[in-house]
Amino acid sequence: MSRFFLNILILFFALSSFTFSQINNSQQTQYMIGGISITGNYNLDKNSILSLVDLKVGDNIFVPGDKIQEATKTLWSQELFSDIQIFETKKENNVIYLEFFLEQLPKLDKFQFKGLKKSEIDNLREDLNLSRGIAIGEQIKNKTKNYILNYFIDKGFYDVECSITENASDDLNYTTLTIDVKKNKRIKIKEINFLGEKISFKDRKLKRKLKNTKEKGIKNIFSSSKLIKKDFDEDLQNIISLYREKGYRDAKVINHNVSKDEKNDLIININISEGEEYFFGDIKWVGNTKYDTDKLNDLLGIIKGEIFDQNLLEERLYMSRNGNDISSLYMDDGYLFFQANPIEVGIENKIIDLEIRLNEGKRAIINNVTVNGNTKVKDHVIMREVRSLPGSMFKRSDIIRTQEEFNRLGYFNPETLGVNPIPNPETGTVDIEYTVESKSSDQLELQGGWGNGMVVGAFSVVFNNFSTKNFFKKDSWNPMPHGDGQKIRLRAASNGRFYQNYSLSFEEPWMGGSKPNSFSASVWKTIQNFSQVSDEEESKMDISGFSVGFGKRLKWPDDYFTITHSINLQRYTLVNYPSPLFNFSDGYSNNINYSTTFSRNSIFNPIYPRSGSKFSIYLELTPPYSLFREKDFYENVSDNQEKYKFLEYNKFKFDGTWYNSIIGDLVIRTHFELGFLGTYNSSVGLPPFERFFVGGDGLSGYSIDGREIIALRGYLNQSLSSISGDPLYNKYNMEIRYPISLNPNSTIYALMFAEAGNSWENYDNFNPFELKKSTGLGIRIFMPMFGLLGLDFAYGYDSSNNSIEKSGWQTHFIIGQQF
Fold first, then answer.
1. How many angstroms separate the Cα of 256 from the Cα of each of 43, 72, 276?
2. Is residue 69 assigned to a domain?
3. Is 507 within the bounds of a domain?
4. Among residues 650, 601, 661, 653, which one has the least CA distance to residue 625?
5. Are residues 778 and 799 in the same domain?
6. DSSP state, residue 560
7. Going by DSSP bridges, is the β-strand pair 29-41/60-63 parallel, antiparallel, or unpaired?
8. I need a labelling partner for 658 at 20 to 30 A (CA). Which of 6, 150, 282, 694 fits?
9. Is the same domain home to 319 and 378?
10. Residue 28: which of 84, 66, 70 has the closest Cα?
11. Burial of 759 (C-beta count, 10 Å sphere; 0-12/13-18/19+)
């Protein structure tokens, strides 16, 4: 024992007598700096160093004191030095002289990898912040090492090893890093177990909540079985959300552990404490003056005795997707400052009584409205779609509808549309700030297609944001005058001598600029030349047409409805036409008709809709010429050209499409359409033009005789109708879609579909259930410059009109159309 105390005594005197050349920290005294010297291995400018530490000759400092400590911290924070020491070299009266000893870190010359593939090296080089000239210390090396380890762990290489060695470079004070990576074997999750005193759900249900953490095996063949910490933590929260949706509001994950089996696969054990299952009790409203309790209870839709679900309660108060929540009720009536605070006022026998305390506030008036991010269109084009106008009462529904209209314009990225209400409770006003991200909307088409046994080339350009006002302004042609939201489409298609088609169309969506009344006009010409050589007797069909239309957005039943009217003129000229399809080979036929479309469109995103619907009723009428002719004119006329000099018919079409989100971005599309071609007078008969042709991808490669081509995948083009077309058809379609990319520059989604349809030569044979059926899958790509492109593989289960065998597998290329 005496020897122990002797050692302690010796150590005490040794420490007391040991003196550092560094600054004495025993007591605080004020000094004036008389001089500062910098020594050691460094190649930095002395003045630059002194400016960093904020010390200079003549400054007064306390020793020991904060100034010296701050100087040291500042130098360390630069990550330029491996050693920093501050010495007191001399002291005269109240003047002190300091020495900074600095050992500078070496700089990076270059770095190289060992043990990795070129693609892995390229990816890491992009991510690692290593460049020539940066100081290389332990912090940088550890940061680099940890990034590489996490990079490969996220890819399933949990036993990855990484070491970094330094080698002196030829350049003075420069170093080369060698990063040696051993990935070892990829490790997958073999088993996930749920442990606890009581587990109320089957493992299968709990594992479905682990969306990003899957066991390896056939059932998860399309899912990764890697363990990624960030994803795993989110999945654990998904499990707790499931429990709380089912009334287990105290459920929690006590712990989890990860181990390896003899094959080096991962086994994950998750220990869960469920707690008790709770139920809703009495719900009392406090502070409601605008709406009575019964109305609030009906909208809340929670009944005493239901399983307690905190998420459901919050959704019904604030966050319902369809807007059927208490907050929306108030905010659609101007109560922007509304608040609802549910308080648990009693818990007995697992029954939770709630008191929902409302602070209704006062109605808010919109002060200013701004739109940020618009670089494509003039302000008046976007502001005329705004429903939340300055001076009007705030309405949540107006905000949502404004965003829908912005998206429907097609000039902005639908995934980044945003709104930021800036309320001012003191004045009872709110500023609305919309944010948009402009995107290209013009389209260019260069197409080579196959139709009727020939190759057809097409060129088309669509300007969706044209400006006629700037047409004669030289500075506006960049490359075209734009900004007023008008649409111009030019198209030319030809295969040389046999077929040529030209068209030009224009649309002004706001004629006059003050109301959403549209004007449109189009002109087209098609020539089919059946002469094989230039000196052969002329044989051709020439179609010329013109159309002018007016549209109006309606206020009733709601302002999603529109109605359009158009007058259409078309002339068919046949010269030595070789086919009996039209009942005459020489002459002409005029089609003068009026058409109207009554439609409703509530689709939010036209490129990848997740909700909403679209339907239209179309009616096309020619004058009833037979009313003004002799009763037996059509029975006695022998010249079919004379009979069809002026076409007489009526046409009706209906189509409806509905979009519903199943889970997340998984969407189901249902569609129905029908059409029929009729006559006013049975003795006139159906016209040889304007008929329906069903089957195939809906593309003909060329356009003739005003026929309407109805797509039905799984069958050859136009193979389900008679050779001259049919006056009646209907079609059903269902698709399930899932997005691969929602990037506005390249939207890609996959789809599966089932559809059925048919056409009939006369009304007596019509049977809406006698259908040609098909199923298949496909992919769609939408690019702003090229429109919609797609590829479908479909199986037709029935035979076409000219075959007794099943249609079987068919491949369809889709260009610029939706089914």
1. 52, 43, 21
2. yes
3. no
4. 650
5. yes
6. T
7. antiparallel
8. 694
9. no
10. 66
11. buried
- Token digits of residue 613: 């619907």
Prediction pTM value: 0.68
| Residue 452 covered by a domain | no
CATH number of the domain at 737, please: 2.40.160.50
| Regions of the chain short of the pLDDT cut 70 | 1-27, 218-223, 321, 445-456, 532-536, 579-582, 638, 699-705, 785, 816-819
| 805 neighbors 799 (Cβ within 8 angstroms) | yes
Strands 708-710 and 650-663: unpaired
Choosing from 152, 182, 212, the residue where a domain stops is 182
Phi, psi dihedral angles at 271 (to 5 degrees): -95, 115
Which tokens in the block code for residue 283?
């719900």
Q: 226: which 2 tokens?
A: 């890697």
Pick from 629, 644, 534, 535: nearest CA to 585: 644
Do 341 and 369 sit in the same domain of this protein? no
- Domain limits at 83? 20-104
CA distance linking residue 2 with residue 471, whole number of Å = 107
Tell me which of 435, 458, 489 is where a domain ends.
435
SS3 of 73-124: the string is: HHHHHCCCEEEEEEEEEEEECCEEEEEEEEEECCEEEEEEEECCCHHHHHHH
Number of domains in the chain: 6
What per-residue confidence (pLDDT) applies to 533? 57
Q: Kindly give the interhelix angle for 46-53 and 66-77, rounded to the nearest 10 degrees.
A: 120
Query: How high is the pLDDT of residue 699?
Result: 65
Q: Two tokens at 299?
A: 């909208």
CA dist list (Å): 409 to 222, 558, 565 = 37, 19, 21
- The strand pair at 540-553 and 806-815 is best described as unpaired
pLDDT at 606 (0 to 100): 83
Residue showing tokens 């136009």: 718
CB 562 within 8 A of CB 553: yes
Sheet with 429-435, strands from edge to edge, namely 365-372, 429-435, 418-424
CB 673 within 8 A of CB 656: yes
Sequence length of the chain is: 819
Q: Kindly report the number of other CB atoms within 10 A of residue 816's CB atom.
A: 16
Cα separation values, 493 from 447, 456, 701, 721, Å: 9, 7, 9, 26
The DSSP line for 322-364 is TS-SHHHHHHTTT-TT-EEEEEEEEEETTEEEEEEEEE-----
d(CA 51, CA 48): 5
pLDDT attached to residue 128:
87
